[in-house]
Each structure stands twice: as C-alpha cells, then as structure tokens.
Amino acid sequence: MRALTASEIIHLWETAYRFHPIDQALSILQQAMPGHTREQLAAMSLGQRDDLLLALRQLTFGDTLPGKDTCPHCNERVEFALSCTALSVDTPEPKRRQLVTDGFDVTVRPLTSFDLGAAANASTVDEARSLLLERCVDEVLYQGVPTPVQALPQSIQNSIAETASATDPQAEKVLELSCPACKNEWQSLLDIGHVLWMEICAWAQRLLLEVHQLATAYGWTEDEILKLGPVRRATYLQMVAP
After folding, report:
1. Residue ranges per domain, the chain?
2. Residue 192 — very low, low, confident or very high, per pLDDT cuts 50/70/90?
3. Is 94 a residue whose pLDDT tops 90?
4. Can you give the pLDDT at residue 40?
5. How far apart are CA 35 and CA 110, in angstroms?
C-alpha cells in the first residue's frame, strides 16, 4: 500500500462520487493497492478492509483523525481527535467459527463487502438483516440434517449474529464518547470508509483551487502543478496570494 497522490485524490473524487459508499471504499483501496483486484478487496472481511482504510488514511493525511458528534442528551456539539494507529488493533485473522448448540451445528463466516452490497439492495431493514444472516452462514445442520437459516428458532438466529460479530471484532469500531458540557457518555460507530471519502472530497476541491490559482499566476498545467510536493506548492501559493 502507498499514499494517494494529489492526482489520484482528484481522480477518485471525479470518478467515484456517484458510487455507493461500499464501492467508494473499494475504489479508494484499489487506487492505493494496484496489485489487488476489486474482487480480492471485496472478499476481505469488513474488519480487514477497514484496517486497510485506516492505514491508507494515515499514509495520506496523517495519523490524527479529527471527529465530531452530537451529544444525545443535551445536543452539545462534541469535537475529538482519534489515532488511526490506535484504532487499528492487531487482532488474529478472521476465520470461520462453529456454533454448536441445542442440536444445531452452524458454520459461520465473517461478512464481506460482497455481503453488504447484496444487503444494500434490500427493500427494508428487516430484509437486509435477514439477508446478512443467511450470507454469513456456510452450513446449518440440525441433528445432521441440512436446515434453512430462516427456519431456525429466533434464539439460534441471535446466536449466529453474535458469532458472526465475534469472527471479525474489528468490523465495528466503537468509539467511547463523553460530553464536556453535561458529562453524558455514549457510544458511536466509526465509518472509516465514509470519513475517508469525505476527506478525499474536501482535499480534491482544495487541490483544484490551488491548481486554478497557480495556473492563473504562472500558466502551468494541472499535471505540472499536481506533481509539485505539498510544501513546494504551498510556498508558491504564498507568493501569489493577494
């Protein structure tokens, strides 16, 4: 993996803005990991994918990740800073697990971007959850007889969902937040794919503004300007600033 260049940031912003968020995340990774196919990236567990996005975010924009949320108790706007390194915990590679209980023998695997993509086409939240439950199960046997997932008791379905989460604990990055105004504490999920995409959008527009300013001042092409390092480009911008 390597950091995104200025030209690649603009290219992603220009080509992936209409994509579904799942495809945006995969497009970002594929740009930084040209040795991997889209199918290979989509087949990774969600935790593996998000750890790669965190690593790419660190390489491209730095380790400190600013965040903000609203306190659910008093509606105070809360700002905070996260570390990409700290968020990417070194955990064992996600693997299939066996759930054996009450005569049921279920093989459960971690969810992937392929699974999220399939669930994204569901018409209701319940339908999406049901689809994800089916997709995370490789096989269900009840007393040795194959059994459909939807025919399972609700308690077994709940156990399958818990087991699926346990196979890939990094799939959900939970933030522990506290309000400085009212001292309320709550949890929030970090969607690093969305956060990184928003940063790419902001940086792309900033870069295009820099291109406009330097092209107007010096007559350079976009490619020539974007090939300048960020420090050198910033120095030129200071010299042409009104």
Report:
1. 6-90+174-206, 97-167
2. very high
3. no
4. 96
5. 23
Kindly state the tokens that stand for 89.
Answer: 């915990």
Three-state SS for the chain is: CCCCCHHHHHHHHHHHCCCCHHHHHHHHHHHHCCCCCHHHHHCCEHHHHHHHHHHHHHHHHCCEEEEEEECCCCCCEEEEEEEHHHHCCCCCCCCCEEEEECCEEEEECCCEHHHHHHHHCCCCHHHHHHHHHHHCEEEEEECCEECCHHHCCHHHHHHHHHHHHHHCHHHCEEEEEECCCCCCEEEEEECHHHHHHHHHHHHHHHHHHHHHHHHHHHCCCHHHHHCCCHHHHHHHHHHHCC
In this prediction the pTM is 0.89
| pLDDT surpassing 80 at residue 133 | yes
Residue 2: pLDDT over 90: yes
Query: How far is it, in rounded angstroms, from Cα 154 to Cα 17?
Result: 39
